[in-house]
Design a protein that fits this description.
Elements (H helix, E strand, L loop, with lengths): L8 E3 L2 E3 L4 E6 L12 E7 L6 E6 L6 H12 L9 E5 L4 H5 L23 H12 L6 E8 L3 E9 L4 H10 L3 E4 L7 H7 L3 E9 L5 H17 L17 E10 L4 E5 L6 E2 L4 E6 L6 E5 L4 E7 L3 E2 L4 E12 L2
Parallel strand pairs: 5-6, 5-7, 7-10, 8-9, 9-11
Antiparallel strand pairs: 1-2, 3-4, 4-6, 8-10, 8-16, 11-18, 12-14, 12-17, 13-16, 14-15, 16-18
């Protein structure tokens, strides 16, 4: 069943009783100015037994679109459950968020140092406390991300192959796309799976940007997920998806064949035929125009929004094997 059964929860030494609402401030380290840096953990518990669900974002401090999704979950009171407990951590990497940076101040990517170490680097210590203090009580989780380095992700759920429980949850969440991807060593998702947490990873939008359509997809997916788990407050409406999620098992990156200025033709999220022009690369002096064409039929699930690219840069991510719907 669930890891906890209608009993007192303990997070970072704080007690959460059934029916409690509590914000717990996680303080692992101070800034170099000795200023305390608090990471709020917002907990809402029902008096009725149910699972513990975590919604987290900002593990990369510059991925603001995920932070906006969790903010909306809170402001719309979606995090007040009918049953069970919902934990929201809008900003995991507060250090990176303050600096508008992907990494921790020690230069490390927090999403590559799990399970961490109590006596390791700053990022490693932070990862250790998240796994030790929070994840042991969590049954289900959605970790929200965005594309990095100016690359815009179409809204998508990522999960590992051969996990029927996650497959069912991805069907319920019903993002426009669902990608099968292996767990990466050192990632939050990989470490959580080892603790028997059923975690979906949401990708959408790009770094240092808020996109309302992406946020809406994330929020609607959360409502469908909570409704499925019998946790959604009956006062909140659930939006039925127009189409079932499209599963993608294989995809390829299209790389720039020359350096120059990238003019994107805005095909993100669309199905394109082989040979369709996705964009052009030009030089600043009017000497050449290079067409970037789709190498195969497929969906464009990521597009580079940087105006300047170099030879070899990843500029489009296209599916090359359609797995059909989640039926």
């Amino acid at each position: 069943m669930y890891k906890t059964k209608n009993k007192t929860l303990t997070i970072l030494g704080e007690t959460i009783l059934p029916g409690d609402s509590k914000t717990i401030n996680m303080e692992i380290a101070k800034l170099h100015t000795t200023t305390k840096l608090k990471i709020p953990i917002i907990v809402e518990s029902s008096k009725i037994d149910g699972p513990v669900v975590l919604f987290s974002a900002g593990i990369h401090g510059d991925e603001i679109n995920g932070i906006e999704i969790v903010r909306q979950i809170i402001i719309q009171k979606i995090n007040k459950p009918k049953t069970g407990t919902i934990i929201c951590i809008p900003i995991v990497n507060m250090f990176g968020f303050v600096n508008k940076s992907r990494e921790f101040p020690d230069g490390r990517d927090l999403n590559r140092v799990f399970p961490g170490s109590k006596t390791g680097s700053l990022a490693s210590r932070f990862a250790y406390h998240i796994l030790k203090e929070i994840m042991p009580i969590v049954d289900y989780a959605v970790d929200f991300h965005a594309g990095g380095a100016s690359r815009f992700n179409a809204p998508q759920i990522r999960l590992t192959l051969n996990n029927p429980t996650l497959k069912k949850l991805a069907d319920v969440f019903n993002a426009p796309f669902t990608l099968y991807s292996k767990n990466i060593a050192g990632s939050f998702r990989n470490a959580s799976e080892k603790l028997n947490v059923q975690m979906l990873l949401f990708e959408g939008g790009k770094s240092l940007d808020i996109n309302n359509k992406i946020a809406e997809e994330g929020v609607n997916g959360v409502k469908r997920l909570l409704f499925h788990l019998k946790m959604l407050n009956s006062k909140i409406d659930v939006t039925a998806p127009e189409n079932p999620t499209i599963y993608i098992e294989k995809s390829v990156w299209i790389r720039a064949k020359c350096s120059g200025l990238l003019h994107d033709y805005n095909t993100i999220g669309n199905f394109v035929k082989k040979g369709v022009v996705l964009g052009i690369i030009t030089d600043p002096f009017g000497k050449f125009v290079h067409k970037v064409k789709a190498p195969n039929d497929g969906y464009i699930i990521n597009a580079n929004h940087s105006p300047i690219v170099y030879e070899g840069d990843a500029i489009y991510h296209i599916s090359n094997m359609l797995e059909g719907s989640g039926e």
